[in-house]
C-alpha cells in the first residue's frame, strides 16, 4: 500500500484505480443510506425534533463546507491528496460508530443535541476529505471519460441505494409494528453499520493510485480569491448558488411533508424515493454519454425545467381528495424528478471539474462548494424558522363550475416553500446562460438528436416485432402442412396394408 503520489500512472494502474474508486463509491453509498436522508429524518422525528432542529439536520452537510479551506492548506503542505482524503475520511467515520455504540454503553445518551454535535464533526472531517478527493479525481480520470465514468459509478451506487433503502425501510416498519420499544436501537444500529462500511471505503482509497500534483505556492486566501476573479467560473458560482438555495428551500422538507401532512408511512416514502432512483438509474447512462458528447450546460438546460415543474407540482399533492390520487401524483413527480436530477447532478459536478484549471483544481472546486454550501445552508434553516409562520397562514382559491366547487389552490405550511423554491429555481436559469463551456451545443439540437435516437430505436424494435409476427404464422402454417401430409401418408399406407 503506497501512500506516495506517482510520477506516471500506467494504463493497468489507471484501470485498477478506477475499479477501486467505484468500489469506494459503493461502500460510501451504503454508509450514506444508513446514516442520512429519510432514515435520519425519521429518527429525528421519533426523538421529538422541532422544525428548527429538522432544518439544522438538513443544513449540516452544507454548513460545514467552509472547513474545506483547511483541505487546501493541508494539500499545499503535504502535496499528498490521498493521505489527506484517507485520514479525514477515517476521522469522519468515528462519530457514526459512536452514535451506534453510545446507547450500548450509556443509557439515554442518544439525544437530539448529541446527535447534532456528532454529525457536525462527521461532516467537518468529511468535507476536508471530500475537497482533496475531488482534486485527486480531477487528475486521475481522463477528461473525455468524466461523464461516462461518473454516470457508471452513480448508476451502480444508486442501484445499491435502492436495494438497501427498500430492505431497511421494511425492517424499520417491522420493528415499529412489533417491537416499538426498540425503534431507536434499530436506528443506532444503522449508524454503527454505516460507520463500519465507511471504514471499508477508506481501505479501498488507500489502494487507489494518485498522480503527483503540481505544488501550489501562493497563500490560501490569494488562491481562493483568484478563483473568484475568473469571470466564467464566477458566473457558474452565481448560477449554482441561486439554484442550490431554491432547491434547499423545498427539497429537504419533501419527506417531512409526506409523513406529517399527507400521512404516508415510512415505507411509502422510501418506496417513492426508490421509484425516483430507478428513474435516475435508467437515465444516468444517457446523460453521461451526452455530457461527454455535447456539454454539461446543455444537459442542465434540458433537465432543470423538468425538475422545477416537479417542485411546483408538490404544492398540489396536499389538496383535499383521496390518498390514492395524491399517491399517483407523487409517483409521477418522483419519476420525472429522478430522470431530471440524474442529469443535473452529474452535469453540475462535471462542469465544475471541467472549468477548474488543473494546477488549482482543489481551490476552484472548494470555492464552488463553499459558496453553494452557504446558499444551501441558509435555505433549510430559513425554512425551519418560517415553517410555523406559514403553518398559520393559508391561501385558498375555489373554482365554481355548474354549481360545483373545485379547490384549485390550497397553500399552507410547506406548500409555500415549494412554490417559492420553484420560482427562484426558474429565475436561476438566466444566470446559467452567462456560463461558457467548451463544446457547448444548443439544447434544441440535443433534443432533436434524442428524438431521432428514440424514433430509430422504436422503428428497429417495431420492425423486429413485425417480422416476428409475420414469421411466426408462416412457421405455424408449415408445421400444420407437414402434419397434414404425414397424416395423409399414414392413411395411404394403412389402406395399402
UniProtKB/TrEMBL annotation:
Organism domain of life: Bacteria
UniProt keyword Transmembrane helix present: yes
Transmembrane segments annotated in the record for this chain: 21-46, 52-75, 87-106, 112-136, 184-206, 236-259, 265-287, 299-319, 325-348, 369-393, 413-433
Pfam family, one: MFS_1
Record SUPFAM superfamilies: MFS general substrate transporter
Residue runs in coiled coils: none
InterPro entries assigned: MFS, MFS_trans_sf, Sugar_transport-like
CDD domains per UniProt: MFS (cd06174)
Keyword terms: Membrane, Transmembrane, Transmembrane helix
Protein name, as recorded: MFS transporter
Naturally occurring in which organism (per UniProt): Mucilaginibacter lutimaris
Organism placement in taxonomy: Bacteria, Pseudomonadati, Bacteroidota, Sphingobacteriia, Sphingobacteriales
Amino acid at each position: 500500500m503506497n501512500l506516495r503520489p506517482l510520477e506516471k500512472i500506467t494504463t493497468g494502474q489507471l484501470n485498477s484505480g478506477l475499479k477501486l474508486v467505484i468500489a469506494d463509491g459503493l461502500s460510501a453509498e451504503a454508509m450514506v443510506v444508513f446514516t442520512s436522508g429519510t432514515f435520519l429524518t425519521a429518527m429525528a422525528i421519533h426523538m421529538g425534533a422541532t422544525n428548527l432542529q429538522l432544518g439544522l439536520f438538513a443544513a449540516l452537510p452544507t454548513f460545514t463546507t467552509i472547513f474545506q479551506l483547511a483541505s487546501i492548506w493541508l494539500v499545499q503542505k503535504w502535496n499528498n491528496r490521498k493521505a489527506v482524503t484517507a485520514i479525514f475520511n477515517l476521522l469522519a467515520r468515528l462519530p457514526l460508530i459512536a452514535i451506534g455504540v453510545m446507547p450500548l454503553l450509556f443509557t439515554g445518551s442518544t439525544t437530539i443535541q448529541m446527535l447534532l454535535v456528532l454529525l457536525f464533526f462527521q461532516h467537518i472531517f468529511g468535507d476536508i476529505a471530500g475537497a482533496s478527493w475531488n482534486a485527486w479525481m480531477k487528475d486521475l480520470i481522463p477528461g473525455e471519460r468524466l461523464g461516462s465514468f461518473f454516470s457508471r459509478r452513480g448508476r451502480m451506487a444508486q442501484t445499491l441505494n435502492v436495494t438497501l433503502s427498500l430492505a431497511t425501510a421494511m425492517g424499520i416498519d417491522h420493528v415499529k409494528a412489533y417491537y416499538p420499544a426498540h425503534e431507536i436501537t434499530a436506528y443506532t444500529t444503522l449508524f454503527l453499520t454505516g460507520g463500519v462500511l465507511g471504514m471499508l471505503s477508506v481501505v479501498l482509497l488507500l489502494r487507489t493510485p494518485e498522480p503527483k500534483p503540481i505544488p501550489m505556492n501562493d497563500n490560501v486566501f490569494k488562491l481562493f480569491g483568484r478563483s473568484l476573479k475568473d469571470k466564467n467560473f464566477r458566473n457558474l458560482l452565481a448560477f449554482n448558488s441561486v439554484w442550490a438555495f431554491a432547491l434547499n428551500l423545498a427539497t429537504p422538507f419533501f419527506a417531512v411533508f409526506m409523513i406529517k401532512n399527507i400521512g404516508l408511512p415510512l415505507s411509502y416514502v422510501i418506496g417513492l424515493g426508490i421509484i425516483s432512483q430507478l428513474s435516475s438509474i435508467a437515465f444516468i447512462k444517457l446523460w453521461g454519454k451526452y455530457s461527454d458528447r455535447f456539454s454539461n450546460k446543455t444537459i442542465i438546460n434540458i433537465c432543470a425545467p423538468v425538475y422545477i415543474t416537479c417542485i411546483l407540482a408538490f404544492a398540489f399533492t396536499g389538496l383535499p381528495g383521496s390518498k390514492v390520487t395524491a399517491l399517483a401524483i407523487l409517483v409521477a413527480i418522483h419519476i420525472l424528478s429522478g430522470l431530471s436530477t440524474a442529469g443535473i447532478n452529474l452535469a453540475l459536478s462535471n462542469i465544475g471539474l471541467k472549468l477548474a484549471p488543473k494546477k488549482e483544481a482543489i481551490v476552484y472546486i472548494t470555492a464552488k462548494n463553499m459558496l453553494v454550501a452557504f446558499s444551501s445552508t441558509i435555505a433549510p434553516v430559513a425554512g425551519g424558522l418560517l415553517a410555523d409562520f406559514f403553518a398559520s397562514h393559508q391561501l385558498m382559491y375555489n373554482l365554481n363550475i355548474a354549481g360545483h366547487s373545485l379547490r384549485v389552490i390550497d397553500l399552507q405550511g410547506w406548500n409555500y416553500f415549494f412554490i417559492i423554491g420553484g420560482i427562484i429555481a426558474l429565475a436561476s436559469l438566466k444566470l446559467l446562460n452567462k456560463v461558457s463551456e467548451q463544446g457547448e451545443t444548443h439544447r434544441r439540437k440535443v433534443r432533436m438528436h434524442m428524438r431521432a435516437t428514440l424514433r430509430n430505436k422504436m422503428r428497429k424494435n417495431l420492425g423486429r416485432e413485425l417480422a416476428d409476427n409475420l414469421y411466426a404464422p408462416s412457421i405455424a402454417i408449415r408445421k400444420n402442412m407437414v402434419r397434414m401430409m404425414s397424416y395423409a401418408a399414414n392413411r395411404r399406407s394403412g389402406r395399402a396394408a
